[in-house]
Amino acid sequence: MMAKLTIPEEELMSPGHMGCLGCGATQAMRYVLKAAGRRTILSIPACCWAVMPGVWPNTCLQVPELYTPFETTGASISGIRAALDALGQEDINVIGFAGDGGTADIGIQALSGTADRQDNVLYIMYDNEAYMNTGIQRSGSTPIGTWTTTTPVGSTQEWEKSPKKNMTAIMAAHGIPYIATATTGYPEDIIKKVTKALSIKGTKFMQIFSPCPTGWKMDPALTVSITKEALSSRAFNLFEIENGAYKVTMKPKKTPLKGYLMKQGRFRHMPDDLIAEVEADLDSAYENLLHLEECTRKKA
Amino acid sequence: MPGTIDEIPITPINTTNSTAVKTGGWRAFRPICDTDKCIKCWSCWKFCPDVSIAIGEDGPIYDYDHCKGCGICANVCPVKCIEMIPENK
Fold first, then answer.
1. Which residue from A minimizes the CA distance to B60?
2. Does the structural domain B22-86 have CATH classification 3.30.70.20?
3. Looking at the DSSP assignment, which residues form a beta bridge with residue A186?
């Protein structure tokens, strides 16, 4: 009997990795490898995925993987691509797989260089909204109001004050051919977008929203359901930008932001007036996205 | 594993599959599937972050050597046929 499956059955990630219980980033890697297949080379900087393959000599990945310093993911994938092209092996996928800190803060210069050179690579940012591997420090991708160890909440209320950095807009400004966002709650969507990205020549960028139960202070069993609530509360949006044309790939019915926030310990201190403020900002960001889709439709 | 520091190569290359690492010891709750109720939608298999569910004839087959007991499978199951049972029972 053949089981009816919606995603490829081949596993290129083995069990026994060092990810925490209910880790969203491991799900992201599993789906990306299912889409990319065996003929793939990964480059991973310092991030959760730098430790998750395991302690030497173990690895949970069935594809070659290069560890790089924190800021060099973009440069290393450019180099791997150049070497493969020189060897005439142009059919091998080169994927950079970095966290949000290694993309939005530390690695942005090397990533910008890669996009500028229009190297034929895919850069994936798995977004867990803080530096989780080193112990939950804030990153550029941390949203307003978040508790982290460097934005502590106590009598001083020093929670995160600046909004989440808009990485897709930064990459869109580079004029690269394909940009997409995805989330681990929708594996079919990740696989569709990665497959599409790898079929396009040039620099591609993907942001995968990956819950982190440890850093978000929530029940690991909620990893999948929290992504659905993140989408419906507009905390994260799914869209593609193909040659400048926006396409919102999922338009869920709106649910209150408070429901999403209160499931996570990192937001539980937020006062109601701050939640209302953040909700208004997120709603207008979503409206902007719909407008951009409308305005850029003819270009597609 | 190397015995002394001199046995570690200058460029360490990972060669062993991580299945050698038994992460099942991390588990506090054990997932048990009632295969009579299972509708074989394979949501549990699809969302398992530890690749610890195999597709069986009657339902999911758990790899208890590696399952960390996160409970995602029980949470995503549409017919709620997976139960998380404390390991000490």
1. A3
2. yes
3. none
